[in-house]
## 1
Amino acid sequence: MPLIKSYIPTKNIFKIQQLLSASDLTMRDRDDLMELFFKAEDNELKPVVKLFDKNPDWIKKISENYKAKRSAFANNNYNIWQNIFLEEENQLKELL
């Protein structure tokens, strides 16, 4: 079994790329999110496409959360990590 998963771009990843390109994120932030989404399975991307398409403001929210998580992880800061997840949980409750 290969260590690196082969990747064939899907309709959902192309749609996410289009939505990110239309956003006001920096090129760096778009690239970071695309790197994250490339790791996901196609069926995991469907709700992301739906969310971003319905409300593009979520693109920035997801980007900010992802950057915060990366920073907390890099700094080995459990308290910040926990706060990020609590904030994310509250944001997700808004969707319901």
## 2
Amino acid sequence: MLIDIHHLRYCGSDTYAHHHEFSLVDSEFGTVVCGATETHMSPTNLGGGSAAGAIIMQYSKRNLNVARNLLRLLFIYQERYNWIMTNQIAWWQKFQPLFTQQLKLELDKYIALM
């Protein structure tokens, strides 16, 4: 399960996306450094949408529960930055193409259990 995530650096942008690099710390696979993007339409380059992309890519390729780890990311960002979960999810829907409707539904199930 996701323990922590750190934004390491903004790697710039191109015509289509903002690029970021993250360090993910997980209880099962340890620490990995990975890149991720969010659409260039994002009004900032803060990396909030990219962090979700990093989670989706890393947990999908390991066949681990993506929605549960996205929920953990929401808790981390709520605690660290005081970001409101519903606003963050709306941001992902707009600017993170890897955040599909199916993932949204799975995440909603976890949120409903809280």
## 3
Amino acid sequence: MNRIVIPQYDYGYQEQITLFTDSTHAEIKDLEDTTVSLKMWGDDPTTPVFTETCVIDNVSKTIFVPVTAEMTAKVGFFNAELELTKSGMKMSSVPFEISIVESAQ
């Protein structure tokens, strides 16, 4: 996954993410009956600074990450991952970076 860059103070829209089953991007991960949450953290992965439940389009298998005012309140580089849960399973994506960049309010 690439880095996601979001201007500080932006909110009210969604970033789209597609998860693939392997590094060749040959097959999109099936998300039926799955709950997906975004977790962001700084230096300590045991203490998320932001967590948000995502919206899933099961037809396109696309994950929509809501961009909120709370998410973009602080400028910085954050580690992030998507946590997928469903009955009897919990799995995390490969960590990626979300950059909240300085912007006029």
